[in-house]
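Annotated sample (chain length 369).
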Amino acid sequence: MTATDRLTAPSEEAPREEAPREEAPETARPRPRGLRDGLLWTGGLLLLALSVAVAVTIGPARISVVDVWSAVAAHLGVGEARLSPIRDGIIWNLRMPRTLLAAVCGAGLAVCGTVMQSLLRNPLADPFVLGVSSGASTGAVLVVVLGVGGGAVTLPAGAFIGALCSFALVMLLSHTLGGSTDRVVLSGVAAMQLFSALTSFVVMTAADAEQTRGVLFWLLGSLGGVGWTDVRVCSAVLAVSLLICLGHARTLDAFAFGQDAAAALGVNVARVRTVLLCTTALLTAALVSSAGAIGFVGLVLPHAARALTGSGHRRLLPVTALTGAVFLVWVDTLARTVLDPQEVPVGVVTALIGVPAFVAVLYRTRRPA
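Output written by the structure step:
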């Protein structure tokens, strides 16, 4: 290389080295995504608030959205009541608790489904795969039909205790069998069949016709007759559970690559899985004890939310909760009005909607021959 070449070589290579520096910086790209996420969450919250307000107006008594906001503002101490006591009671004591509990149950079941599908790496997992629903059903039947507790234990309390017993059995069986994800699922299936058989046995041998009808209606999911106590309890459990799950969002992302990959990234697999499974089981137990067994929400809604946000759980969990809340608000509205004055169990409507979606998920997750 000549002296002239040595002098010209740096000037020829310099533009190649400077080219990457002139590109748009990577740090500027998260802003559109953050803006999009903010708009998505804000839009979801506004849609949920509007859905609740409109759903409360639907029913035999004609009530407007303005009436709903007026009643809510009056009870919150913001304004003065301008409605008659009857219309105010319909809004505040009948329709509003039911609609809000539908939103809470939809959000909670959808969040549970999202977490369980990630933990178990099974796109068909849902909140009832641990047998929680079957255990809750058995506990409710023992209280209603056999009078267990001597009147001191209510139906929701009995359902909650039964759900916890079922989950404890699942965790014991899975731990004894090795504690892997497939053992957890198999243990859940075994517990589900066991408690379903116990429920059927008690109903067939000890319940009269009226008790059988009431129990079966509750087992299919019912939001009728709920009150503000149910809303407060379920909302508190949902808030705590959602915070716990959001605190493990990065860990759930690691589980998407498998337990071995998560462990290689420093995740304590056994501890995290136990914490999150217990969290989802307690949340499911609280929701089932108040609203009965409502299926397919935790199975289908996580897939719909992933289509909107992707698989990152820090964004996925809040969007899933909002999607499930809006979905179940309208499902409950349909269930209580489509055959008015007769009411359709909420679980029946979710199954009619969820089965086609379930089949679609099966087709998406099928393996090529």
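Annotation: The chain has 15 helices and no strands.
Annotation: The radius of gyration is 25 Å.
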